[in-house]
């Protein structure tokens, strides 16, 4: 597996906590704290083929970081995207980057659509068509009214 290709260093994120702009891969360092990860605007992902899909992005890892004159080790947590009812939201930019590249996830509209039965889809389409027809009718009558009313309005003949 080519895990390195997951990181796109050109992609920039803006942290919602410290306000700093950081590039992909530089997930930690929020407020200058090496173990603190940046957070971004929460984003929702939709999984149409499974309700409880789980995606392990990263296993626990031991990091050696500089600490004063010496070093210390920290454990980075395991990162899992756990879908509930086909939905998962995260403010973790690292998870977002991986999920953004995964073409199996879909838009909210497609997700809702995938949950509908063929009959419900048909009904929904009919509702949309009826509403559009009503709107067209409304606009046409507005247009017709404007044509009937010249700028210099004359009193109607008896
Ligand atoms: Zn930050």
Would you spell out the secondary-structure blueprint of this structure?
Blueprint lengths: L11 E3 L6 E3 L19 E4 L7 E5 L2 E7 L2 E7 L2 E4 L4 E4 L2 H9 L6 H8 L2 H31 L10
Antiparallel strand pairs: 1-2, 3-8, 4-7, 5-6
Descriptive notes:
The N and C termini lie far apart (86 Å). The protein has three helices and eight strands. The model has no long low-confidence stretch (mean pLDDT 86). The chain has helices spanning 93-101, 108-115, 118-148; strands at residues 12-14, 21-23, 43-46, 54-58, 61-67, 70-76, 79-82, 87-90. The protein has a two-stranded antiparallel sheet. A two-stranded antiparallel sheet has the order 3-8. The protein has a two-stranded antiparallel sheet with strand order 4-7. The chain has two domains: 12-106, no CATH class; 116-146. A hairpin with a 2-residue loop joins strand 5 (61-67) and strand 6 (70-76). Helices cover 30% and strands 23% of the residues. Bound molecules: zinc ion. Zinc ion (ZN) binds at residues 15, 17-18, 20, 30, 38.
Characterize this entry briefly.
Helices cover 30% and strands 23% of the residues. The chain is an alpha+beta fold and 158 residues long.
């Amino acid at each position: 597996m080519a895990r390195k290709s997951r990181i796109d260093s050109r992609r920039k994120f803006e942290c919602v906590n410290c306000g700093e702009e950081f590039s992909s891969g530089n997930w930690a360092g929020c407020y200058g704290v090496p173990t603190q990860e940046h957070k971004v605007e929460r984003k929702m992902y939709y999984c149409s083929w499974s309700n409880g899909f789980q995606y392990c992005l990263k296993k626990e890892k031991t990091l050696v970081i500089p600490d004063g004159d010496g070093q210390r080790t920290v454990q980075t947590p395991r990162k899992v995207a756990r879908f509930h009812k086909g939905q998962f939201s995260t403010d973790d930019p690292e998870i977002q980057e991986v999920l953004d590249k995964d073409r199996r996830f879909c838009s909210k509209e497609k997700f809702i659509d995938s949950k509908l039965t063929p009959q419900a889809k048909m009904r929904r389409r009919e509702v949309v068509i009826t509403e559009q027809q009503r709107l067209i009718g409304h606009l046409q009558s507005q247009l017709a009214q404007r044509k009937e009313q010249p700028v210099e309005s004359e009193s109607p003949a008896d």
